[in-house]
Every structure is written in C-alpha cells, then in structure tokens.
Amino acid sequence: MKGFNVRFILPGSTKEAAVAGGTDLLSAAMKAGIVISASCGGEGLCGKCKVIIGQKKVLACETIVEHDLEVTIPRESLEIHEKGAAESEEFTKGVVLKRENAYPYFPLVTKVYLKLAAPTADDNVSDLDRICRELGKKVDSLHISTKLANVKFLSETLRDSDFEITVVLGYKEGGFSIIAVEPGDTTGRNYGFAFDIGTTTVVGQLIDLNSREILGTRIAFNKQASYGSDVITRIVFASAPEGLEKSHKAVTSNMNEMIDDLTGACGVNLGDIYAITCAGNMTMMHLLLKIDPSAIRKPPYIPTTTAFPAIHSSEAGIDANPKSLVSFLPGVGTYVGGDIVAGVLACGLFENDGLSLLIDIGTNGEIVLGNRDWMMGAAASAGPAFEGSGLSCGMKAVRGAIQKVDIDAGLNVKCDIIGGSKALGVCGSGYIDLLCQMLKRGIIDKAGKIDMNIKSSRARRGENVNEFVLAFKSETDAGKDIIITEDDIENLKRSKGAIYSAIISLLAKVGKDINEVAKIYIAGGFGNYLNIENAVSIGLLPDVKRGVYEFIGNSSLAGARMSLLSKEAFMVADGIAKSITYIDLSAEPTYMDEYVASLFFPHTNLRRFPSVRS
Predict the structure, then answer these.
(1) Domains along the chain?
(2) Phi/psi at 352 (nearest 5 deg)?
(3) Alpha-carbon distance 548 to 565, whole Å?
(4) What is the pTM of this model?
(5) pLDDT tens digits for 211-239?
(6) What is the CA radius of gyration of the chain?
(7) 203 touches 88 (CB < 8 A)
(8) Cα–Cα distance, 545 to 18 (Å, whole number)
C-alpha cells in the first residue's frame, strides 16, 4: 500500500509521520509522538480530537490519509500542552517519604565483584560452582539459579578476565538468579528505573542503585489516552483487532522515551540498566504486558492475574539491558492494583494501630481502609478530571498550570501559577480552589450552575454552554482565554462525588464512622498543592479535624522505588496485596445512594459538613 507523509503543525513546533494510505489521523499523530485527546477511544463520539486541514475542522479519528497532508492541531485538542511536558520537578515534590529507608537496602538487582582463584588439579570444581562458592561467602542465604545463556560463554569470560568478574544477581520468585556475568569490576555502574504507570500519566525515575540517589524524573501523559480517557474505554479498544498491541506499544513508548531522555541527560549507558519496577492499576499492567483485559469489564469482573511474574525487559519491548529484570508490584482485585499496594507500603498504613485511610486521588480513586490487623480496598471511577484531563483547560501539575485561585468580592481573579510564568491551563488543585471560590462568591450554586446575572464580564455564554473566565487571552500563554464551563463543573462534581461516596460506603461496610479514623493519607501528584479546607468545602474530602490529613505525594512511585531498592520491601508489598480484602462498590446497595447524594456542593446533607455549614 502506498505511503504518505503527514506534517503536523503544533503550537510552537512541527512533527511528521510517514503512514500507509487508509491510516486515520489519530493513529498518524500517535506515530509522530503526538497524543491527541480522544476520550471515546476514537469512536467519533466525544468530538475532542478536532484538527484543522486547510480551513476545515475535522475529527482526527474519522479522517483517513489518502495523500500527503498538512494538519494543524489546536492546543485544546492536545492531551498535554507542549510547554511543560517534561517539567517534572514541581510534580515530584513530596514523593520522598519519611519511610523511604524503612527496609534494609538490598536492590532487586545487585552486582557482586569476585576475584576467583584459578582452577587447579586440587581445586577442580566447575566454573559455575566456583562462582557460586565465592558468592556464598559474600551474600547471605543465597540460593542461586541461572539460565543456559549465561553458562555458554562463561569459560571464555572467566579466562579472558583472569578470573576477575562481576556477577549480576536478580531477585525473582523468592530467590536470586545470575542474570549476567561481566568481565572485571563493574559494580560502580548499576542503575534502575521505577515507574508509576497511571491511566492518565506515566512517571519514571532513574535511580543509582549504589548510592540510592534519584538522578532524574520525567512525567508524561499516557499515550494510551488516544484510545480512551478511562480504563473501560481502553479495555474495549484493546479487545478490537490490533488494539492490544497498539495499547502495549503506546505505554512502552512512554517508558522508552523517559529511559532514553534520562539516561542521555545523566550520562548512563543503557547496558547498565539492570532493574525496573512498575506499579500501576490492574488494567494498565494487563495492557503493558499484552494480557487480554477484556474479562475485567464483564461480570463477574475478574482479571487474568493480580500478580505478575518478573520478566526480562526484552520480553516487553522496554529499552534497557536485554537481561534486565522488570518486576511488578502485585495488585489486590479488579480495580485495586499495584499502585495502591505501593501506596500502602509507602505510607505504612498496614503497620498502624489506629484506623487509617489511604485515598489515591486519580482516575480510579482507589481507597484502602484498615490498620495492622485488617485492610479493605475499593475503587471509584472518578475519571481523570483531577489529573487535569477531559476539561476545557485542564492540564497536569507542571510548569504553567494554575495551581491556586482566589476570587475577591469584586469578582477579580488571582491565580498562582507553577513556575511563575503565564498560565497554560488549570491543574487539579487549581480546580478545587476555583470551585470553592466560585461557591463562596455566589458565581455558582450548589448544583454547579453559573449565575449569569452576576456583574462581571467573566461570566458569559460560550459556544454551547455557560462559562467563567479565569484569565483572558492576553494574560496567558495558552493562545486563548482560560475558562471553566458548566460541563467542566459537572465533570468535577461527579469526580468528587465518586471519591467521597466511596470513602463513606467503605466505612459503612465495616460499621465505622469517619470520625473514628485516626489518619487519612492523601496520595496523588496534585496532593502537593491541595488545599484541605477548599477540598472539604466542595465535598471532595470528609469534614474532620484537619490534623488527621497527611499528604504523601505520588505514593505509587514512592512504593515502586522502595521495592526497587529493597527486596524485603518488595516481599512486604506481596504480603500487603494478600492482606487487603477487595470490595466491589458497584455491588454495595448503599453506594449509589451515597453517590447521588454527593452530587451537590458540598453535599445534600450539610450535617456531614459542619464547618462548611457554619
């Protein structure tokens, strides 16, 4: 089939892709490394993938390439603004926890230098036994295995290096395996990656496994967003022909770009990357490993597996030493995955005497309730709104994002922007502040409707819906006014309602009241900027003593990093996963009633929010 060239014009840059005739523009953009918003998974239903050809606006998912094309992609159609895409410093503040070194340091992959005695007539054990004998002197409780590939050229390696070698040991399935033998002393070069594979974003960290230093962090929107904004849409897409392969390649592309970027920036050789740990929800892990996820969305909603065996990076198409080990934190159930297990590990909830609650505010709104004696986990489909996706001007908490909002009595808006530059959009914490302020100043009512009678030019009728202007075009770097619409407010209202009602329903399941909870851990990237008072005022979080709350940042990434650096932490994570009882909220009769009651600001029952009522 004849190939054509597509040139994409983006805000501030251009990209090109060579594609076969008959390819849709959504797929062509993905090939060029561009993630266009398509929350419906390219079914032509959401209308968010608008692009411009000539003077005509078309949907990328419905436009087929039949000749060379020049396509303009407006900023609002991009899943992430071009500026700030790699600005990860602000986002990752707070992810280093006080429990970072709670477990003995022993990475999942470690290097051991050996200076072996050459064989003699009196010492005539085999080369492999000679290595294992010496390893036993340096590593406690060692049970060694290896593969044929490491034995084939072992004799040559030993003799060429004068019996001075570095053995690379990888921890898997409860024991150590020799995954490589390198000539000479290479122990000074041992690196690994920790990844948080989220529905909306992927975050990666390059870590020196010798010094435990985080050398760099990158964050990007998950490229699977072009196939749907939520896990259900992506499961549907993955069930179609070639859908699973495309979904797999999208997320491995995210990972490989980060690996390439960070190793290049830090001067690290890919051959020295021997360990990778991943934490993510159940659907993301299935898609990453090309495991059919279709049963997850069909009654009785069962994943293929909740525990994933360690593999070599080459098996998954991840760029690292081909012999490197990729390990996965185990999950609990259909919608409570390894990311929440990593969070429990990171915050230490499972060691607390008092009743504790972990709330990971992301696309799935995962929650764990319990203490050292018992734990229960559940998830609510919160959607990606609080991660900055699916909203008119939403973006991740990176440079250019409005993170705090204040509106005075004259309805003048003051915004605090990450990085101090002009605004590009609004992140999750900014939306929470904004909703609180709009309620406080009477701009919206408890149902989220904008009062069009207020005396301000900021309230206006948009293209199809009422909207309120936070910043006018001249004040931004977005090339347009930054607004919030009634549709955005409805989206945010449903997201906050899903999270709050999940919390209350899980407590009701065990006959507990929210005031009995001694500690509430708030996880998620935007928690670094979250204002608790404002979150309570809109009904996102329960109205309890503020000292109960503790922010722990991206606990999924922190738990993945802890597991990478300590085999004991990795083993503890496995125990955590087995100790959490999974609750399917959709089967709980009280959940839907709670959800409907939460679809007001802050709630239909103001007695639950005494500080807001007063």
Answers:
(1) 3-77 (3.10.20.30), 109-183 (3.10.20.880), 191-328 (3.30.420.480), 338-383+502-607 (3.30.420.40), 385-491 (no CATH)
(2) -80, 145
(3) 30
(4) 0.88
(5) 999 999 998 889 998 898 889 999 999 99
(6) 26
(7) yes
(8) 58
